[in-house]
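queue> pop job 88
queue> type: inverse folding (structure -> sequence)
queue> payload:
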């Protein structure tokens, strides 16, 4: 029996593989490519597909960023977005990348 058949499972599997590759790339990029102490000390809690061609990346903010408002942390992530996209594009072989949506939670928050 061939694993290459049609069906909807293949697309889901490929998207999950892409999410895993995005996560690995962002983890390395946050630690190695930015001088911003807040970005360097963030962790990625999840990278999941959402509706359409979008991927949601959930970041956990650890000290020293914990005292910042979420809007400030998101602003730093948005400023870093072009470099993150560039690194993801280098790491994965795709014609187009999904749109990234950032979500921030702080260490110690309920649900964190």
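queue> result:
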């Amino acid at each position: 029996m061939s694993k290459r058949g049609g069906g909807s499972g293949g697309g889901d599997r490929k998207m999950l593989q892409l999410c895993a590759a995005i996560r690995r790339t962002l983890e390395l990029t946050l630690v190695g490519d930015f001088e911003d102490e807040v970005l360097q000390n963030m962790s990625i809690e999840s990278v999941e597909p959402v509706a359409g061609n979008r991927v949601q990346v959930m970041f956990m903010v650890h000290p020293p960023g914990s005292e910042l408002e979420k809007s400030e942390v998101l602003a730093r992530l948005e400023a870093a977005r072009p470099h993150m996209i560039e690194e993801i594009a280098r790491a994965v072989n795709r014609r187009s990348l999904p749109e990234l949506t950032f979500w921030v939670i702080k260490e110690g928050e309920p649900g964190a």
